[in-house]
Amino acid sequence: MSKRIIHVVTNVAHYDDPKEPTGLWLSELTHAWDHFEACGYEQAIVSPKGGHTPLEPRALKWPLLDASAKDWLGDKDRMSRLAATARPDDIDPSRFDAIYFTGGHGVMWDFPDDLGLQALTRTMWEQGGIVASVCHGYCGLLNVTLSDDTPLVAGRNLTGFSWSEEVVAGVASKVPYNVEAEMKARGAHYQKALLPFLPYARVDGRLVTGQNPFSARLTAEKVVGALETLSPAH
Q: In terms of CATH, what superfamily is 4-227?
């Protein structure tokens, strides 16, 4: 039976300054979606509030706008998915095998403290599913605790957008916190590639994480590898 995956996207359209737009880094969704689709997986998209997810403008310009993202932008059916995402409480986690948190700086505001996402992630993990993220998506894992009140990330190997990449990208002064440092403070074993913006992903059992936008395809491949070792949800 086909595997089923939940993609998580942001509802936040700007940094603290409304004149500074941000949103979903589109290729972090599309590269994973395309790979999962090629594997015959069923997929859904959820956001903290449901409804529309804004797109990060920088990711829609050359040279960062690639063929995968272009195809989505030109496909009305796919774009309609981003205009009408589900809410966490619309999702029955027992029907899904994995949850995958996408990035873009907007997630730094709405992912960490969303109780619906936390509950969905906790249930997915405790029912034996895969929990995955790419880039800033790991902000969604920061405050997830398990039923025994331990942080999901404590003692686990992971990666995500690094502080050095925030600096190189020129946005270190705009972000609300240093997520790499916050992960380490929660007991996570954070690692990154030798140089900024190289593809890099880590697998720690059922936790799969990728470092940056260029790691989305690699992360998806590792999610598939992890999923193929599990029995179907049904």
A: Class I glutamine amidotransferase (GATase) domain (3.40.50.880)
